[in-house]
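Here is the promised in-class demo. Please do not try to memorize the tokens; focus on the logic of going from shape to residues.
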């Protein structure tokens, strides 16, 4: 699938982002940033006061087949980057209306597709094409390394998804990096560099100390849509097995899992050019201990909502007191990550977390 753009994707997104920001068509929120280490892994911790002000009606009632307002059905011209492929558009690239990281953009299906359904070949192919073309232009090189994207997908009520119209999200890795978090690398990159194979399996990769079940597979160079879907379904089946406390190598239970239609679980998916990674989710939120005095008038003090950015090794909190509580005791973050996910199981189906 070719995007068919008249200029490089990174240049186009940057230009549209600046125009939308200056025109007031998106709301960019500054964050305070620090680096904490949990389970031996550096995490970016962002304090974003705007999280407490973001409209609370973005997630529709689960009984509704469609949202009352669907921002991807007819995207605002000011936020629309492009429709593609040119000859018969199936997807659109749209700027995130409430970004906290510059050039955060979204890949949505042009026609209605449910966020809770499994991804289709065309979704995965389009996502990979965005990853592939982002750093292609020599003019988008920063220092010795080309610009890169981190892609993630939230699916299911416990995944942190905020819109039911199917969409994947992209964050430029260079925009996530800041001087305050020198030494940070996206979690999926840490896994790629230091992955181990699951016990008894030479297939799925994982990080031993990460406190929630997760599975990763390498991507070949320029994979076909069939290859991308095969890898995705393998990871999905492993994630379902983890939610059932089974060995991920055993395959699906009977009846066999469908490879299309509604997902059987909530999960986060992440992808770079080299790796695809999945983590099943038990809960969207987790709570950290809070001093009642420090909590003040915070709404839901200590309750953190996490989405697929945890697979990038970054997360946000809505209040300074929560930011301070995590920075002073990083073990709280380890517990949060454990509580929103599932335990990893060994080759005999026993929990190893």
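The designed amino acids, position by position:
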């Amino acid at each position: 699938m070719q995007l068919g753009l008249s200029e490089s994707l990174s240049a186009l997104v940057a230009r549209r982002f600046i125009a939308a920001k200056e025109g007031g068509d998106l709301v960019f929120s500054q964050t305070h940033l620090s680096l904490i280490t949990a389970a031996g892994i550096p995490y970016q911790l962002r304090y974003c006061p705007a999280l407490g002000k973001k409209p609370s009606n973005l997630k529709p009632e689960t009984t509704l087949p469609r949202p009352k307002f669907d921002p991807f059905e007819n995207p605002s011209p000011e936020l629309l980057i492009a429709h593609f492929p040119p000859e018969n558009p199936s997807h659109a690239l749209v700027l995130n209306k409430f970004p906290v990281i510059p050039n955060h953009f979204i890949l949505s299906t042009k026609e209605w597709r449910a966020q809770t359904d499994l991804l289709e070949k065309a979704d995965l192919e389009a996502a990979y094409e965005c990853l592939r073309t982002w750093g292609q232009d020599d003019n988008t090189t920063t220092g010795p390394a080309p610009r890169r994207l981190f892609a993630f997908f939230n699916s299911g009520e416990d995944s942190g998804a905020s819109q039911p119209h199917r969409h994947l999200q992209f964050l430029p890795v260079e925009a996530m990096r800041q001087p305050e978090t020198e030494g940070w690398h996206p979690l999926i990159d840490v896994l790629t560099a230091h992955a181990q194979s699951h016990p008894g399996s030479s297939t799925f990769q994982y990080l031993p100390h990460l406190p929630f079940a997760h599975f990763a597979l390498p991507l070949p160079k320029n994979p076909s849509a069939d290859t991308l879907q095969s890898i995705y379904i393998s990871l999905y089946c492993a994630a379902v097995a983890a939610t059932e406390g089974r060995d991920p190598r055993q395959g699906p239970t009977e009846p066999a899992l469908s490879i299309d239609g509604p997902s059987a679980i909530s999960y986060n998916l992440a992808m770079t050019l080299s790796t695809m990674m999945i983590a099943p989710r038990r809960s969207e939120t987790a709570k950290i201990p809070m001093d009642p005095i420090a909590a003040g008038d915070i709404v839901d003090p200590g309750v953190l909502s996490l989405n697929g950015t945890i697979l990038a090794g970054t997360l946000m909190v809505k209040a300074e007191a929560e930011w301070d509580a995590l920075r002073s005791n990083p073990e709280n973050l380890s517990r949060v990550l454990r509580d929103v996910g599932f335990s990893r199981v060994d080759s005999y189906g026993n929990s190893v977390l």
